[in-house]
Design brief:
The chain has about 230 residues and is an alpha+beta fold. It has helices spanning about 5-100, 110-125, 140-160, 195-215; strands at about 130-135, 165, 180-185, 190-195. A four-stranded mixed sheet has the order 2-1-3-4.
Length: about 230
């Protein structure tokens, strides 16, 4: 028995409707999934960009903080160096003033002559040589001659050694120094400078920590003391 055309048409329409319905549902499902994946990807990309921005500004902030610390450290170092320079200049001025005052020592001939004797004896004790050449300022030649015997006697008593001294009357120490003597042996290979400036320089080097403490007080950063 043949199916009427109307029935065939109805069934075909039902199939078309079913297919259309399935297609619509599939389209909705695909669109929904696409929207979901889009939103997820969009969220991921947004968060990724946020992290990049945060990282950028965190790095920028750290760099700014680092530069700030570097600048502060540089300023502190500059201030410290400036203070040290001022202190060293002041110390140099103190030493210069003291050196200038040394020149007044020679004005008291009795005191200066006694000092020359001591400087010669000390120099001989440092050299401990049998033959020694002494130089002094030209204006001090007679003063040195007057104390040589006493200085040698004092040296011999201290060292139990004999010494032959020659006073150089051809080559002199600079006339603009404060005073004192220079002793040499073995053709100048051994040399002891006992000028007043040299002795002051030795004292300053030995006493520099004490001088700084007197001028500026104790250093809070100093951990060890002699």
């Amino acid at each position: 028995m043949a199916i009427p055309d109307t029935e065939v048409e109805r069934q075909i329409q039902q199939m078309i409707q079913f297919i259309d319905h399935e297609a619509d549902e599939k389209e909705v499902e695909i669109l929904a999934k696409a929207d979901e994946e889009f939103n997820i990807e969009k969220g991921r990309l947004v968060e990724q960009e946020k992290q990049k921005i945060r990282a950028f500004y965190e790095k920028k902030e750290k760099n700014a903080e680092l530069q700030k610390k570097i600048q502060l450290s540089n300023l502190q170092n500059q201030a410290r160096l400036k203070l040290l320079k001022q202190r060293e200049d002041h110390l140099d001025e103190v030493v210069a003033n003291t050196t200038e005052k040394l020149r007044t020592v020679t004005a008291d001939l009795g005191k200066y002559q006694s000092m020359l004797q001591g400087l010669i004896t000390q120099g001989l004790c440092q050299l401990l040589e049998p033959n020694v050449l002494i130089r002094c300022r030209e204006q001090d030649v007679q003063l040195v001659k007057d104390v040589l015997d006493k200085a040698v006697k004092q040296y011999t008593e201290l060292s139990k050694l004999d010494v032959n001294i020659k006073l150089d009357e051809q080559t002199f120490l600079a006339s603009d120094i404060a005073g004192g003597v220079q002793l040499s042996a073995k053709n100048g290979k051994l040399l002891v400078s006992n000028t007043l400036e040299a002795r002051l320089d030795q004292i300053v080097k030995q006493k520099i920590p004490e001088i700084r403490t007197m001028l500026y007080g104790n250093n809070p950063n100093r951990r060890f003391f002699d």
